Amino acid sequence: MIELVDIRKVFNSGKPSEYSALNGISLNLGSNKVTVLTGPSGSGKTTLLSIIGCMSRPTSGRVRLSGREITSLPERFLTEIRRKTFGFIFQQHNLIKGITALENVMLPAYPLGERHGPLKERATHLLGRLGLSHKAQSRIEWLSGGEAQRVAIVRALINDPSVIIADEPTAHLDTQLSHRFLDIVERFKSDGKTVLITSHDPLVYKAGVVDEVVHLRDGRLEGDTS
Ligand SMILES: Nc1ncnc2c1ncn2[C@@H]1O[C@H](COP(=O)(O)OP(=O)(O)OP(=O)(O)O)[C@@H](O)[C@H]1O
C-alpha cells in the first residue's frame, strides 16, 4: 500500500543548524494493517508520518502509494491525495474553538464540494458511532478532553480515508479511554482501513490489534546498520 524507499530528511540544509532527521528509511506498510512507529523522542517519528501523509517532502528517496510514485508530484496533486487518502489524528487535536463539534467534523469535507445535506447526515451518523450524538451541537471548548479526542477521530474519518494516521493518540488519554481508542482502531481495521500510529505507549504498541511495530532510533530503523 505505502512503500518508502531510502527516505532522507535534512532540515535547514546548508546552515549551521543543519539536521539530518531521517537517514535512509525503507519500509513497506501493508494494506489493511495496523503499524505502530515507536522510538525515543527526536528519533524522527513525526517527521516520517508527515512525509507518509504528504504533508512534507523527503529531501531524497521515494514514496509510493498503491504503486504510484508520489514524491515528485506537484503540490496541488499532493493536496488532493492527502484529502482523499488520509485521515489525520494529531496529538493536539487542532479542533477549532467557537464552532460546534458537528461543524468541526464537516470542515475537511468542504473542499471536496459535497452537498451540505448528505454531508451533515454522514457527520451526524459518525458522531453517533463514537457515542457523541448528544454533543454534536456543543462548542469544542465545552467538551472534555476525551470527547474532543473522539471528535478529532470522527473528523479524521469524514472523507472516508483509506489510511488513518495518528500521532501519539493516547498521549492525553487515561487507561480506559486508551482502550476505547484501541477498540476504534479495531473497527478501522475491520472496515478495511490501513492504520499508522506513532506511540511511546506500551498499551498501544503491545495491543493485539497491532500487526507490526517499527522501531526508529536516530532517524534509522533499529537494527538497520546500512
Ligand atoms: N522543522 C524542523 N526544523 C529543524 N529540525 C526539525 C524540524 N522538525 C523536526 N526537527 C528535528 O528532527 C528530529 C526528529 O523530530 P520528530 O518530531 O520527527 O521526532 P519524534 O520522534 O516525533 O519525537 P517526539 O516523540 O518527541 O514527538 C528532532 O531532533 C527535531 O528537533
TrEMBL record:
Protein's UniProt name: ABC transporter related
Lineage: Bacteria, Pseudomonadati, Pseudomonadota, Gammaproteobacteria, Methylococcales
One of the record's GO cellular component terms: plasma membrane
MF GO annotations: ATP binding; ATP hydrolysis activity; transmembrane transporter activity
InterPro entries: AAA+_ATPase (IPR003593), ABC_transporter-like_ATP-bd (IPR003439), ABC_transporter-like_CS (IPR017871), ABC_transpr_LolD-like (IPR015854), MacB-like_ATP-bd (IPR017911), P-loop_NTPase (IPR027417)
Pfam families: ABC_tran (PF00005)
Keywords: ATP-binding, Nucleotide-binding, Transport
SUPFAM superfamilies in the cross-refs: P-loop containing nucleoside triphosphate hydrolases
Family annotation (PROSITE patterns): ABC_TRANSPORTER_1, ABC_TRANSPORTER_2
Domain of life the protein comes from: Bacteria
Record carries keyword Nucleotide-binding: yes
Sequence ranges assigned to domain ABC transporter in this UniProt record: 2-226
